């Protein structure tokens, strides 16, 4: 493990992992257990070509989020928020 050429790929992988975890935590915070900032439930309105789930609320402000980590949504329980 003293080979310095290994250091860059390891750092790169750690960097990617950090990005993934950060993205996951951000989406989880936005998802807010299925509720928009206004207190109404998110409703799925679209799925993009990469599998991201688009959610919007029904309040006049039309809050909107995109979820790419699907298991965040499944944490709600019966998964019937869609
Ligand atoms: Zn709203």
Q: Care to describe what's here?
A:
The protein is α+β, with helices and mostly antiparallel strands and 82 residues long. It has one domain (4-74). Helix content is 37%, strand content 16%. It has 2 helices and 3 strands, in the order αβββα. The protein has helices at 7-31, 70-74; strands spanning 43-47, 53-56, 64-67. The chain has a 3-stranded antiparallel sheet. β2 (53-56) and β3 form a beta hairpin. The radius of gyration is 17 Å and the shape is elongated. The model has no long low-confidence stretch (mean pLDDT 88). The chain binds zinc ion (ZN).
Specify Rg, calculated over alpha carbons: 17 Å
Structural class of the helices, strands and pairings? alpha+beta
Order of helices and strands: HEEEH
Overall tally of domains: 1
Separation, N- and C-terminal Cα atoms: 48 Å
Mean pLDDT: 88
Quick one: how many beta strands?
3
Low-confidence stretches: none
Approximate helicity band: 25-40%
**How is the largest sheet built, in terms of strand order?**
1-2-3
Largest sheet: 3 strands, antiparallel
Give the ligands present.
Answer: zinc ion
Work out the helix count: 2
List the topology elements.
Layout: H1 7-31, E1 43-47, E2 53-56, E3 64-67, H2 70-74
Antiparallel strand pairs: 1-2, 2-3
The structure holds zinc ion.
Residues 36, 38, 40, 57, 59, 61, 63 line the site of zinc ion.
What attributes characterize this protein structure?
3-stranded antiparallel β-sheet; binds zinc ion; elongated; 82 residues
């Amino acid at each position: 493990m003293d080979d310095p050429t290994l250091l860059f790929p390891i750092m790169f992988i750690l960097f990617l992992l950090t990005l993934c975890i950060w993205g996951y935590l951000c989406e989880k915070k936005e998802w807010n257990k299925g509720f928009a900032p206004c207190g109404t439930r998110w409703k799925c309105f679209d799925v993009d070509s990469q599998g991201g789930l688009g959610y919007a609320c029904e309040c006049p402000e039309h809050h909107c989020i995109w979820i790419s980590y699907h298991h965040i949504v499944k944490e709600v329980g019966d998964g019937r928020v869609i």
